[in-house]
Every structure is written in C-alpha cells, then in structure tokens.
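Journal club side-thread
Mid-discussion, someone asked how the predicted structure for our own chain would compare to the paper's figures. Pasting it here so we can look after the session.
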Amino acid sequence: MKIILNEDIKSLGHKDDVVTVKSGYGRNFLIPTGKAKLATESAMKMLAEDIRQRAFKVEKIRKDAEELCAKLNGMNITIEAKAGASGKIFGSVTTLQIANAIKEKGFDVDRRKIAVDDIKNIGTYTADLNLTKEVKAEITIEVVAAAN
C-alpha cells in the first residue's frame, strides 16, 4: 500500500514522502490517526503542487533573510545595565533586551532567533542571529554601566 506521510515518522520517513507500508499498518493506524493519506492519483497531483508552492515560499523567505543578514552583519549595539563597582551587572542581559536594541536600529528580529552566552559582566560580546537554517548573522554587543 502506497501512502503519503502528513508528518515526520521516525522509522518511516519525512513529511510529504511517498512510502510503501503493509496495508494493515496503513489502514488501521497511519490513515485513521491522520499521520498519512492514501497515495491516489489526485493526492499525488496535490502533493506535487504543494511542494512546488512551498519551494517558492521558502526561496522568498531565504532571499529576505539574506538581505536582512547583509544589513545586520557586523552591527554594533550598546546596552546599558546597572552594575557594581567590580563590573558585574545586576541580573543579566537577555535576548529580549538585545531584540529591543536591534529594533531601535530599525530591524525586527525575533528574540528566539538570538543565540548568545550569558552576559553578566560589562564588556563586549558577540551574538549569533539565526535568521533561517542556512542564513546566520553576527552582531557585537557592548554592555556598559548605566549612569545613576
């Protein structure tokens, strides 16, 4: 029995793969639970169209991410934080603070796409912005003591 997977199944394949399974497994488990659908002629045509449209969307997202990466790469941002005399800041600098500082420069980056080590002291740090799987940018963060 040929089926089209609706989601990734560890031992079987990835989403939109056409696989052959035993008819009992497909008819009694995969199809009723919505994990797969029967690979009919019309379903195969719909799958081909979906894959074609998804490739177009992914290409557009990748181009937009590359343009943003070119603008963000090497950007310097400054974040003020309350600090003690030894240079240790109270608390830490979060990805939300970094995202807000980037937003002030005119770029919108989701805070979940920012990867940075713990920032607990005054100094200069680098952060990676994972815009897509393939496109990554690197920015410099300078943490300074806030004026009291």
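Post-session note: The domain at 2-64 is CATH 3.40.5.10 (Ribosomal Protein L9; domain 1).
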